[in-house]
User: Which sequence fits this backbone?
């Protein structure tokens, strides 16, 4: 029997649009998806929401672009700029790094801690190494 993966949201939406065209009620559509996808099934409220969108005339299963600023702070260029700056100025603060690169303080902190895996030791950025007993 076929099953759905976590990346099957668009496939489920496509199934929903076709079943909506055939005027199948949302509960039946959800039950059918649950039979096929099991634990990866969209929630009933999500199925009902998509059915209402398709009944109103929507034809796309893709999410519309969201307003706001796109995530640009952690791209490879910014990451390498932060890395080069910290290597040149290891005593710099997060604010100094952010101002130099032109990103927010939060983005600079995320790049330093999560992406570059650095931590501050005696006012200096060093690689974060875990030691095991």
Assistant:
């Amino acid at each position: 029997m076929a099953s759905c993966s976590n990346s099957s949201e668009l496939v489920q939406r496509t199934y929903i649009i076709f079943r909506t065209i055939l005027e199948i009620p949302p509960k039946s559509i959800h039950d059918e998806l649950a039979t096929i996808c099991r634990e990866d099934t969209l929630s009933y409220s999500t199925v009902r929401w998509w059915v209402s969108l398709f009944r109103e005339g929507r034809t796309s299963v893709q999410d519309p672009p969201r307003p706001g600023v796109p995530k640009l702070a952690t791209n490879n260029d910014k990451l390498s700029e932060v890395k080069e700056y910290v290597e040149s100025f290891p005593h710099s603060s997060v604010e100094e790094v952010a101002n130099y690169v032109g990103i927010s303080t939060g983005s600079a902190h995320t790049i330093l801690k999560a992406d570059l895996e650095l931590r501050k030791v005696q006012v200096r950025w060093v690689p974060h190494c875990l030691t095991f007993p």
